[in-house]
């Protein structure tokens, strides 16, 4: 698919390739929220309102938390992970086309795929891990999204976990990045590995060297980028390298300041990285750097972590919130009070920075009182975002023009569907997968919770909204 947020994918993620269609505004749409929203309700001519086109209810959770993360789009198929399976549906009708059983539940997915519609997932080891502390997310498989055919599956390579080499464990998969024909896995302090997606051939794995260097992890999409750690793990020398996906050899290298012990890749192309100086900083971002194709630093952007909605896990390519394209970095601000004090709830906006200079770019996109803007993906130089419904009015999928920050409504969302409204209300871009393409919005669940099932009853595994 294109860059779609898998909230984790998906998050159509910052590193996706952005090849989604350039959707035209819905019929009757004006220039959107920047031209007439008052207290969250739009005075513009209303576009066609979306309706629920098809959906599936989630199976009952078998434990406190069951992972069902992962969803993908091709021109013909929408595929969604369930519990120990992946199912493909016809994009037009919602008819089930195929089902791919998995021997164990998935443990890591990526929103990225190859140009011919192949992606890679990780699932738990069918046998108990040899060393319990090493975890069981050690199996990798490639499948064709259009057909549901599994192309290959393998276990990750082993590494020595004792000084005398007497004990070995398989690399634990923490993240998956796809670029070109390569799938690379990050495994934190044990290093990274990569496979040729078409054949399943192992391209590289962790190897010891005199400098004690490992790859912390990878970000994929239009480029494959590694964060490389050398020396003492707690006081490392970090570099960010753009790699040749076929060989793993660096095409460019950026030396990270010694103030940082961890670094995230916010976008692989253009290359944008972020980190937080000091110890215990792996999931924070306060300093962002844009890097050119030769590894030269272009600009440094300081972003107070309480001011912007940047959500990261520990892994290299997991930050959600920032998007980059057209020479700019786009950031959603943190939630804050509404302009009108009598309107309940909170709001936020999108702002932009010039990647060449680090300076704020003119304009901003407001969510309107009571509404919030969440990033979905880049589309060329523009941002596609979800604008959640305010107290009075409708939510929408909007295009934020990169040059002007003006909004255009692409799809107005219904406010009379109780189940859908609940999904919007609890929407969190770390807990749900969210895709938008060709006039349709795809919501996918990531976690099933047994206690929620018992209290609230059935809920959607996924739902698809559109006008036709």
What do these coordinates show?
The protein is mainly beta and 468 residues long. Helices cover 3% and strands 41% of the residues. The protein has a four-stranded antiparallel β-sheet with strand order 3-40-38-37, covered by helices on one side. It has a four-stranded antiparallel β-sheet with strand order 5-6-7-8, with no helix packed on it.
Could you describe the largest sheet, including whether it forms a barrel? 4 strands, antiparallel
Radius of gyration: 22 Å
Number of helices: 2
Please list the strands of the largest sheet in the order they lie side by side. Answer: 3-40-38-37
**Basic shape:** globular
Q: Percent helix among the residues? A: under 10%
Residue runs with pLDDT of under 50 for 5 or more positions: 1-44
| Structural class label | mainly beta
How much of the sequence lies in strands comes to 35-45%
